[in-house]
Specification:
Blueprint: H1 11-23, E1 28-33, H2 40-51, E2 55-60, H3 77-85, E3 92-95, H4 102-108, E4 112-116, H5 129-139, E5 143-147, H6 154-161, H7 167-179, H8 182-190, E6 196-201, E7 203-216, E8 223-236, H9 237-245, E9 250-260, H10 264-269, E10 275-286, E11 289-295, E12 300-307, H11 315-328, E13 334-339, H12 347-356, E14 360-364, E15 384-388, H13 389-396, H14 403-413, E16 418-422, E17 428-432, E18 436-440, H15 453-466, H16 471-485, H17 497-507
Parallel strand pairs: 1-2, 1-4, 2-3, 4-5, 6-9, 6-13, 7-11, 9-10, 13-14, 14-15, 15-16
Antiparallel strand pairs: 7-8, 11-12, 16-17, 17-18
Helix pairs in contact: 4-5, 8-17, 9-15, 11-12, 13-14, 15-16
Length: 509
């Protein structure tokens, strides 16, 4: 392949090449894609594209924008470019610099933009990108052209023959696909678009202070570090609301800030447009802030300082919150509780939520500040529980027993019909009172940052549970959301529908 390296050029140079060729009266065809595993379908498609024009250029999705889930692409952008350049029918290859093909089309301005026949029906494109690509090529006087060649799926080939997933995951997916096609799962997620959700819980401002180690102080038994930079993230209930808001019609976030350094402007600036806030204030506390000192090389957390007051909410503020919830909660299809146990949600608020919610989804988090004091059993009832295994074991007071027995005991005591328990590298287990248990494997072992993975699982899975989807679907989608989240630094970005749809399509090929 190295003899064809001259075909691989920067995207800006490709634009100049295309302009020069068009001046000479040549018809330039452009193909675009990931091309993660070159197969006969790709080759026939590219050969057909070359026959329809004088010159064929291929623009390639770069690694950082391949939204097919963790572990993809299998082959990096340079190897993929070399594979394309090795084909006689391909004249030039360029690695794109953007998430979509639209910008590349606007640079190349091809006479033909060529796609396979599976894109001929725009409504079947889950990304909606083909519509924008057509508009871009027609804007420069070109047209969209479809080839009609034999098709294969790179994703399916990789899943089946390149050990993308371990044997137990493949076994689970084989059974799951027999029950639920990818299109059905995606349609179910799209069906959440009319739902109204109230999200309530603790606001947390996560700060990452990046610093590099200098070594031990010669005079003290401490490790010294050098400050590099810092980054701030909207965490806690804000992260949950942002995850959920991508999938539902509208979301209301109900939370409490502190009067001391309230960070109100920052909080409001970090919410998605379809989230309306209801912010209460307690005058005896700061807005909860967790400042982590982090080694930027591998995102190792070195030390953490928390700013909060977790004493019970002052009675006057609790009364205000309860008064608001009495009227607001019945207006929403679902209430999602993100309870970090930092002093906001008290027994009176719990009582209103349990009494008024049409569908109540609850997470109570156990963390270093509330160990043993913030159990799921503080809620007398719930419709959907989503917690991790240690949190379930704390609630059941069962350290070593069968986790299924613990789930049944807690679910029975809370009259809860649906439960999801996340188990880290063991995946998740879901429970439905009517159908029993399902174990869901993990879908990624490449972890950038674990912070917020459980929040992503909760926020994406809860609306599906409220919509009445089977718990194996709820668990699969939740696990996929969690797998995507561990590749994101803290809450730098939220889980969005289109990448999740693509991930679903990838694993269910």
């Amino acid at each position: 392949m190295s003899t064809n390296i001259h075909k691989i050029i920067p995207i800006a140079d490709l634009a100049e090449k295309s302009a020069a060729l068009k001046k000479k009266g040549k018809v330039v065809a452009q193909c675009h894609g990931v091309f993660d595993l070159m197969h006969p379908g790709h080759i026939k498609h590219l050969e057909a594209a070359r026959k329809a024009a004088d010159v064929l250029v291929v623009t390639l999705t770069p690694d950082r924008f391949v939204n097919k889930g963790p572990g993809r692409p299998v082959f990096n952008e340079h190897l993929r470019a070399e594979s394309l350049a090795a084909l006689t029918c391909v004249d030039y290859v360029a690695i794109n610099g953007w998430p979509t093909a639209v910008e590349a089309i606007n640079l190349v301005k091809p006479g033909l933009y060529v796609k396979g026949s599976d894109y001929a029906a725009p409504e079947q494109d889950i990304t909606g990108g083909i519509v924008h690509e057509r508009e871009a090529v027609e804007k420069w006087g070109g047209r969209l052209h479809f080839t009609d060649e034999v098709t294969f799926s790179s994703t399916e080939l990789l899943n089946n023959f390149f050990s993308v997933f371990p044997p137990q995951t493949k076994e689970f997916l084989a059974g799951f696909k027999a029950r639920h096609p990818a299109s059905g799962v995606i349609d179910a997620m799209k069906g959440l678009g009319g739902m109204k959700v109230l999200v309530i819980g603790d606001t947390i401002i996560d700060e990452y202070h990046y610093c590099r180690g200098l070594g031990k102080s010669p005079k003290e038994n401490i490790i010294c570090t050098k400050y590099v930079s810092q980054e701030t993230f909207a965490g806690g209930v804000l992260a949950c609301a942002n995850h959920t808001a991508g999938f539902v019609k509208e979301a209301k976030v109900v939370t409490c800030l502190g009067a001391e350094d309230d960070k109100r402007d920052y909080v409001l600036s970090r919410l998605k447009p379809n989230i309306s806030p209801e912010l209460f204030t307690r005058h005896d506390a700061p807005t909860v802030t967790k400042r982590r000192f982090v080694d930027p090389a591998f995102l190792n957390k070195l030390f953490e300082v928390q700013f909060f007051n977790d004493y019970p909410l002052p009675a006057d503020v609790s009364g205000q919150v309860c008064g608001y919830l009495e009227d607001a909660v019945p207006q929403y299809d679902m209430v999602l509780v993100s309870d970090f146990g930092h002093g906001f949600i008290d027994d009176k608020i719990v009582e209103v939520l349990c009494r008024k919610a049409r569908f109540l989804a609850v997470n109570t988090q156990t963390n270093s500040a509330n160990l043993g004091y913030n159990l799921i059993t503080k809620y007398p009832k719930a419709d959907y529980i989503c917690i991790d295994e240690p949190e379930m074991r704390y609630a059941a007071r069962d350290k070593y027993g069968d986790i299924r027995a613990a789930i049944e005991r807690i679910a029975g005591g809370m009259n809860c019909g649906k439960v999801a328990v996340t188990r880290g590298h063991l995946g998740a287990v879901t429970y439905d009172k009517a159908t029993g248990f399902t174990e869901i494997p993990i879908f990624s072992d490449k972890i950038v940052d674990r912070v917020g993975a459980g929040d992503a699982f909760l926020s994406v899975s809860a609306p599906l549970a409220a919509a009445g989807l089977p718990m194996d679907v709820v668990g699969l989608v939740g696990n996929l959301a969690g797998a995507m989240k561990v590749s994101i630094v803290c809450n730098r970005s939220s889980i969005e529908p289109v990448p999740l749809y693509k991930f679903v399509t990838t694993v269910l090929k």
